[in-house]
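pinned: reference chain
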Amino acid sequence: MNTELHGKIVVVTGGGGGIGSEICRIFAHAGAKVVLTHRGGAGKARAEKTLISLAGHDHLLIQASVDDYEQQKNLAHQIEARYGSVDILVNNAGMTQFVPADDLEGLEDEVIDTIFKVNWRGAFATVRSLKSLLLKSGDGLVVNISSIAGTTGIGSNVAYCASKSAMNTMTISLARALAPKVRVISVAPGLVEGEYTDKLDPTWTEQQRQLNPLQRLTTATDVAQAVLACATLLKYSTGCVIPVDGGRPLT
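pinned: its structure tokens
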């Protein structure tokens, strides 16, 4: 364990997922106090497991679905009461569902609305609820977990690609709006090996691996390390999208 971020307060939405849990662990290992959020249900058990695995102490687990306004307000109140401010917010919570891009009828309105409600509106709502606490830090940072789908238009479905493109635009807008006290950056992974790919056809997944110039898929650790770099190394960066994709768009 190091102390690079000793005493920093880091909020990670969807902290029990594959990417979220790795982000939590890497920040805790750097000395931060981590607040994990979950939406309840199966997500609670996974978040509790992540919480137990974290190095250090004084971490916190809170149920705060990104699409629930009252839970978002409660999140802000609990964090303020315990820590007083927030230094880093990682908007990691997200969802998708595989629908082929040419299956326009298959991408139903309910799926579209849920994707945008979680992936875009949810990220915005969390920034909105924690804005005053981020400003208190004086050196705040928001990292939005986007996707290369937001720029390539290739992803699990058309709405998912559009939601990540919208997230990138929001990143630019908020970086301008919250400067100079809060920086806002998007981290855009390629296809991440793990929970999502485990549900896909292994033959297709292997094809994607071979198409990548670096001959492997993105890992949760790749993403977490990029987020950590935003906090510790890229301190003069804001309003930008950082790809973590192994050069996949080159092919």
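why pinned: Residues 9-193+220-240 form a domain with the Rossmann fold fold (CATH 3.40.50.720). The two ends are 38 Å apart (CA to CA).
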